[in-house]
Amino acid sequence: MAEALAIAVGKYTYVHEVGKGPPEAIDAHHIVVRRSREKGVNLCLFTLLLFVYPTFLLFRQGKLDTLHIWSLVIMALLMRLFLKKPVKKESVLILPAFGVQLETQYGSGKTVRQFVPISRILKPVLTECVTPVTCYWSLSLIIRGEEELMLVFKELRPPVKMLAPIWKALCAAIECGECTETIT
Amino acid sequence: MGEPEKHRILMVSDFFYPNFGGVENHIYYLSQCLIKEGHKVVVMTHAYQNRSGVRYMTNGLKVYYVPWKPFLMQNTLPTFFGTLPITRTILIREKISLVHGHQAFSTLCHEALMHARTMGYKVVFTDHSLYGFSDVGSIHMNKVLQFTLADVTQAICVSHTSKENTVLRSGLPPEKVYVIPNAVDTAMFTPAPERLSRDEIVIVVISRLVYRKGADLLVEVIPEVCRLHPNVRFIVGGDGPKRVRLEEMREKHSLQDRVDMLGAVPHAKVRSVLITGHIFLNSSLTEAFCIAILEAASCGLLTVSTRVGGVPEVLPDDMVVLAAPDPTTMVHAITRAIYMLPQIDPQDMHNRMKKLYSWPDVARRTEIVYNRALKCSNPPLLDRLSRYLTCGTWAGKIFCIVMIVNFLLWRLLQLWKPDKDIEVVPDIQVPKFQHEETPFGSRKEESF
Questions:
Q1: How far lies B199's CA from each of A173, B221, B230, B286, B334, in Å?
Q2: B33, A97 contact by CB (below 8 A)
């Protein structure tokens, strides 16, 4: 059995599944995206309006002018945006003495997994990222022999309040890994 | 009496390390001293090659290298509103109380000050240069400056000449403009351990070899000085488009053995070049302050300089020989300086410079300006718009439109991403090191 702790901030919910049992138990950290239902409904209604008006004109006049063609183009783009499979959840599974598994779960149900052996991880780092328009925190892993940092959350940008406990857990797991290496 | 108020300052400029120059040094040293006084200082600049994101420098000075690529003379492309989201994010996440912009050339500085005023922050602007009034570039620059300074809380200039120039160009009330000179890190610029022999007199020139720095003047002065004084040798450090003319002059007058051309001199090696000479020659045609002559005087060199801009305000009369920017007068000034050399004591000169110009003093004076700026009232948007209208028949209206659009965009950003959704950054406590190499800490940890 696992005990779950949850924190909700903005559109993200952080779930920490603490494994009951030996210290080797899997430590799972999930960042779940909370989809706004009203946003989806509004988008659907807006798309419907954009679609209904040109269709009505097409049946009535038998032709479409530029404005109506543009409204159809906008509608198509909005539909694509709405139907695009968004990320539902990103997880970090810490397997003490083995490694870290990073998982990305999409809205369609598809899951992408990546396993990083503990021996390859030098250090987990919390960094501030700067883009031309904003700043945000990100959790990365320094990988042995790699120039680039490996992002733990590739799609989502959870707040630092959620990243800090995951970073602490990763630090503890990697220190533990180093201990076992020195013992053996 | 209560403890002095601690500020959270955002320094903004397109010019910062790893780029080197007067403005860059000014921001760095001022920030270090303000941190020592207990204030929080954050620097915002554009990215330099692969130097992007957040970097920490000595004493925990935090630098945001925003990934906006420079497009001309280390300046970012003017977008008016493009920098609003990032500026707003930094101001909120760092809990900034005051924004300090540097250099009228800096696009990022002008935009950040505009956004900060829109958001109701107090702003201070420091002008580091002098400008003309007649050429196209200056007319345009003066209009931009007028726009920025129309709503600035306080302004700082590096010399009284610079203040006069800024007031004339921007129409800013003189009582809003303060004069705080630059300083020099005297610990970095110490005289040679042993006094140099005067059998051969070495004149040092270190500057960018461009028209503004009087490179054409050097072309005429050097051969004449070499003709009049057979024991004089020149060391010319620096690079630029006018280097070719100096090389040609050296060939024409067969002065290869008496004029050493060093090329570009890294800032870290400036002192080692200066201490090989007796006299420092500055031939600038325009200068708001001239830090180079401070560095030379700190190294114990007697200075010969053109009487331009703020230069006459920089050094006491017994440390400098001033001349009009024409070859004949410059040659006479150099001759006078050669005869003055026996009375010059480099160590005494260095000690005097230590008292006259210090960064902690500059920081204390800047703090007073910050305190006054924060006491100023915050007028509503309509009152501020009336200030912009006075900037010109057409320009005033354009400035008003720009500010209204900026205000609306800011409100839109607040709706899209409210202030409470922007995470506040925790302050990092930097351990105090006991063995510091300079008053500003060891600079070994900075990879420029």
A1: 71, 21, 11, 34, 16
A2: no
Cβ-Cβ contacts under 8 Å, B86 against chain A: 130-135
**Average pLDDT, 10 consecutive residues per value, chain A (184 residues):** 69 77 73 67 65 65 64 69 69 87 84 88 89 91 86 88 90 65 38
The residues, ordered by sequence, that sit 6+ positions from A60 with a Cβ below 8 Å of its Cβ are none
Residue A147, chain B, CB below 8 Å: the answer is no
Helix (H) or strand (E) holding B62: strand B61-66
Q: How far apart are CA B400 and CA A67, in angstroms?
A: 33
Query: How many CA atoms, within 13 angstroms, populate the side-chain half-sphere of residue B204?
Result: 24
User: Which is nearest to A141 in space by CA: A170, A161, A111?
Assistant: A170
Q: Say yes or no for a CB contact (<8 Å) between A134 and B89.
A: yes
User: In Å, how far are A72, B265, B427 from B162, measured between CA atoms?
Assistant: 60, 28, 36
Q: Which of B87, B77, B80 is nearest to B119 (CA)?
A: B87
Which string of DSSP letters, residue by residue, matches B182-213?
----TTTS---SSPPPSSSEEEEEES--SGGG
Chain A hits for B56, Cβ within 8 Å: none
Quickly tell me which residue has 């180079």 as its tokens.
B292
What CA–CA distance (Å, rounded) separates B334 from B322? Answer: 9
> How wide is the angle at C-alpha B394 spanned by C-alphas B388 and B395, nearest 5°?
45
Extract the tokens encoding B244.
């070719």
Considering only CB atoms, A130 lies closest to which of B67, B82, B421, namely: B67
Residues near A171 by beta carbon (within 8 Å), at least 6 away in sequence: A123, A124
Consecutive sets of 10 residues in chain B, 448 residues long: mean pLDDT of each?
Answer: 75 89 91 92 91 90 90 78 94 93 90 92 90 73 80 90 87 89 90 84 91 90 92 92 90 88 89 94 90 93 93 91 93 91 89 90 92 87 80 84 92 86 80 48 40
Check B54 against A127: CB less than 8 A apart.
yes
Strand partners, A19: A2
* Cα B202 to Cα B237: distance, rounded to the nearest angstrom: 13
Q: Kindly list the domain boundaries of chain A, sorted by start residue.
A: 2-35+86-183, 37-83
A134 to B93: CB separation less than 8 angstroms, yes or no: no
Using beta carbons and an 8 Å cutoff, which residues of B are at the interface with A?
52-54, 64-68, 82, 85-86, 89-90, 93, 421, 423, 425
Tell me A54's DSSP state: H
Q: What is the pLDDT of residue B448?
A: 31
Token pair recorded at residue B229: 């004084």
3-state secondary structure of B426: coil
Least Cα distance to A118 among A182, A173, A164 occurs for A173
Are the beta carbons of B423 and A128 separated by less than 8 Å?
A: no
CA distance B94 to chain A (A): 11
Chain B interface, best mutation among A130, A134, A151, by max B CB count within 10 A: A130
Please name the residue that has the structure tokens 């080797």: A24
**B425 interaction partners in chain A (CB closer than 8 Å):** 128
Task: Give chain B's domains with CATH numbers.
Answer: 8-183+360-421 (3.40.50.2000), 201-356 (3.40.50.2000)
The distance in angstroms from the start CA to the end CA of chain B is: 43
Q: Do B425 and A128 touch (CB under 8 A)?
A: yes
Residue B149 to residues B61, B124, B152, Cα–Cα distance (Å): 27, 9, 5
